[in-house]
Amino acid sequence: MKKYTNFSIEKTCALLNIDSPSGFAEDAVSWLEAEFSALGFASRRTRKDGLIVDLGGADGENALLLEAHCDTLGAMVAEIKANGRLRLTNIGGMNANNAEAENARVATRDGKRYEGTLQLIDASIHVNGQYDETRRGWDKMELVLDEDVSSGEDVRALGIHVGDYVLFDPRTRVTQSGYIKSRFLDDKLSAGLLLGLAKYLRDEEKTPKRRVYLHFTVFEEVGHGGASSVPEGVTEAISVDMGCVGEGLECTERMVSICAKDSRGPYNRKTVCALIDAAERSGAKYAVDVYPHYSSDVDVTLAAGHDLRHGLIGPGVYASHGYERGHREGVENTLKLLVAYIL
Question: What is the pTM of this model?
């Protein structure tokens, strides 16, 4: 499985370099479409601009849908200030506390990119005596453009407008010890992992025991990614998203997490038990956890009225919605579980 783990991490890193905050994921979806085509798997776009991939399988009346999302957190220009700075509004759960001093780019409607840095208003410690006491929030932060601008007119002359997307650098690194560090591992690590699953099926000439579809959603971070586009014949849906790592939970970055309950309620008991059984049969290191502050695409799928069993798994990721960290062993253990579950 190491070959497919390496492949998954390679593809994750490539996808992390493609900007895709919610509503701005066209390039990421096009890239995924081309990658699955190269592996020999057919796909189609949804009306919401997501992607459905058919991995094949014998039983189309008892099909499985694996959901992952390729949209990420980000921001949008909310105001062009008189001094040439930009007030932003966050997209999804992007948190101003851990976005401070991050490099970012403004994407204009005509395709230009302008660099800048998200800073606290009056960010010089030697000038601002309230620097330490200031509570970080989007109303206290501003994007400082790396352009010679000192007025709103200067900014508009560049073609920057309210509603333009702001794209944060992922800062991706893979260490020799196997750790993967980056913004937006949620959920591009799982998207890369599902490419690894597809390559495994192709290379090993394996056919799933039932039909398996993948749905790459593009609005998960704003709460409605998995609400639609469930293929005919699907009876069970599983989100493949990040597994939570933190105090009170057993999962580590080296494990696959199986979620028994999140903030929306419990997952289907039959599915949870079947996932545990698959993990044990495959020898995957796993943990079963309850996530206190979490909601997944498949929660939304059920809330939209689809009559399905549902579950949630994912490689362990620490520091979620911040500068996140996973590990290659977490990827490998998730692949082991998935292979055992579908074959």
Answer: 0.96
